[in-house]
Design brief:
This protein is α+β, with helices and mostly antiparallel strands. The chain contains 5 helices and 5 strands. Strands 1, 2, 3, 4 and 5 form a 5-stranded antiparallel sheet that branches. It is rod-shaped, with a radius of gyration of 44 Å.
Length: 201
């Protein structure tokens, strides 16, 4: 059977068309892993993103103010801590407290003599500090006692009166016997380490 030139061309074109059609059908049915899935932004996700951005802006705006507050608090704390009793041991800190009280008594006119001292146990004051108590005994006039209490309150060191026991001494001279308990604030490092004591048991 003889096929004309025209029919041969038509068959070639048909073969090419069938091949292209097969490729097209295969491409449609075969999953393309490289094709990216389009992301559609919903109205909800836009609102959430805007709210998050607003929160981040608020946080960023508040940061400088918080830094200023932190600096002021740190400076105030450093100023207050200048009054801490600095010593190597709690006993040395108590000696400093007694020395300061003796200096206050000696500033009176006439000077008041210190007649006795007692040391108490170191106590915790919050989580960062400790207290070293000390008791002193002396005899003075009532107006001198008032001056002594005011002078202790005005000391730059963090020393405060905890307790005062006052009894009459000499009615003629209007003097009183005083047992005054004061405390000085010390760093926490001077507190006894109970955990180390417990570890040795």
């Amino acid at each position: 059977m003889n096929i004309s030139e025209k029919d041969r061309r038509a068959l070639k074109l048909l073969a090419v068309a069938v091949g292209l059609a097969a490729l097209y059908v295969a491409y449609d049915f075969w999953p393309n892993s490289s094709a990216a899935t389009p992301v559609t932004a919903t109205a909800d996700s836009v609102e959430v993103a805007e709210q998050r951005l607003a929160r981040l802006r608020d946080i960023a705006a508040a940061a400088p103010a918080k830094q200023d507050v932190l600096k002021k608090v740190t400076a105030e704390l450093a100023l207050r801590e200048t009054g801490l009793i600095r010593a190597e041991t709690a006993q040395q800190a108590q000696a400093v407290v007694i020395t300061k009280i003796r200096e206050v008594l000696q500033q009176e006119t006439p000077p008041v003599d210190l007649r006795g001292t007692e040391l108490g146990g170191v106590e915790a004051l919050g989580e960062a500090y400790g207290l070293v108590p000390a008791s002193v005994q002396f005899e003075c006039r009532v107006e001198q006692l008032v001056n002594v209490l005011a002078a202790i309150a005005a000391l730059p060191e963090l020393i405060a009166t905890r307790d005062a026991q006052i009894t009459a001494a000499n009615p003629k001279d209007k003097t009183v016997r005083v047992r005054l308990t004061v405390t000085g604030v010390v760093p926490k490092s001077l507190l006894p380490d109970k955990t180390k004591k417990g570890a040795g048991l």
